[in-house]
Amino acid sequence: MASPRRKPRRFFSVLRAANAIVRWRRSRRGPLRPTWDDRFETWAIVLRLYAIRSNALPLSVQRRMASGVLPKPGGAVAYEPVLANGVPSEWLRPAVCDPSRVILYLHGGGYCLGSINSHRDPVGRLCVAAKAHALVIDYRLAPEHPFPAQLDDARAAYSWLLAQGVDPSRLVVAGESAGAGLALSLLVALRDAKAPLPAGVICVSPWVDLEATGPAMKDNAPFDYVSRRVLLEYARYFMPSQRWDDPLASALHADLRGLPPMLVMAGGAETLLDDATRLAARAQSHGVEVTLEIEPDMIHAWPLFANAFAKAQEALVRMARFTCERVP
Q1: How far apart are alpha carbons 328 and 318 in whole angstroms?
Q2: Is the distance from CB of 96 to CB of 146 less than 8 angstroms?
């Protein structure tokens, strides 16, 4: 087996080769989505095929591959490993920032993949744009550690931040995909415990329905790299009891009253689109201030690819704007 370090080079080599095929096909049939140029269409197709093939591999291999696909961060951010109440974590500190403005970032990956390593670049870019410090945590992953291990780790890290003197009114919790679902679970648990809540929450491409329902699961399947089959597989790893309507595991079933203002972002071409729209509708019906942004034709968690695409970087800027509005 090739080493994980060779995987990104192979991935980008495939991108270059596939682009010629995509341009040929587009010249005859047009773009797959109205706003896709040939470069983004190549990326989306290859990423989808890459996900299909990689999901057939053991989780240990998938984790190494996921850590290698995104680029290494630049030098605009300093990185400081810490233990947050026993949870392996890392501070991301941009050179120019307001140190009192803090983001707690919870990575995605279906509760089975993802790490600090896989998210340094996009979270670092978010920190720079928001002029904020960020704490990224390596919460425990399923199936080795099923629910509620992830929530326990998020609560431990949040408590650690407050013990370090972080003012919750100067704190925003953010995450993408499963990380967005975990962010909401954290806030619901904090509210129920009558603990101080943060100033806001950012949910990018949130996975909040463990049953993976909604028309977009089928309608957007030809375009997105996240499939219903894989989501259900990860859900079984995450919660073997299949109590998928547990409000602390699936926020679509949670009472969201009293939560802080929420930014919900989703791509118009992603399979989890309906999770985002239903979450926003539920939160609004519960009296939460919600901003819902649907980016036309974008795939799942597109802000992660800010190193490659302007629309992804623009999404990070909007996330930063929300952070600064909540923590001026």
Answers
A1: 15
A2: no
Contact of 290 with 284, CB cutoff 8 Å: yes
Residue 92, beta-bridge partner list: 79, 134
For 269-281, what is the mean pLDDT?
A: 98
What tokens does 83 get? 């233990």
What's the pTM value of the predicted model, to 2 decimals? 0.94
**Which of these is catalytic: 107, 119, 133, 300?**
300
Q: Which CATH number fits domain 78-326: 3.30.160.40, 3.40.50.1820, 3.90.1150.10, 3.30.720.10?
A: 3.40.50.1820
Among the listed residues 54, 177, 185, 250, the single catalytic one is: 177
Distance (Å, whole) CA 58 – CA 61: 5
The two three-digit tokens of residue 143, written as one number: 């199936």
- Say if residue 2's pLDDT is above 50: no
What separation, in Å, do the N-terminal and C-terminal C-alpha atoms of the chain show? 50
Query: What's the CA gap between 275 and 101, in Å, rounded?
Result: 29
Closest CA to 306 of 95, 74, 138: 74
Average pLDDT of the chain, as a whole number: 93
Share of the chain above pLDDT 90, in %: 83
Q: Has residue 1 got a pLDDT over 90?
A: no
From 41, 90, 270, 295, active-site residue = 270
The answer to whether 185 is a known catalytic residue is no
Q: Is-catalytic flag, 300?
A: yes
pLDDT of 8: 54
pLDDT average, residue stretch 154-162: 98
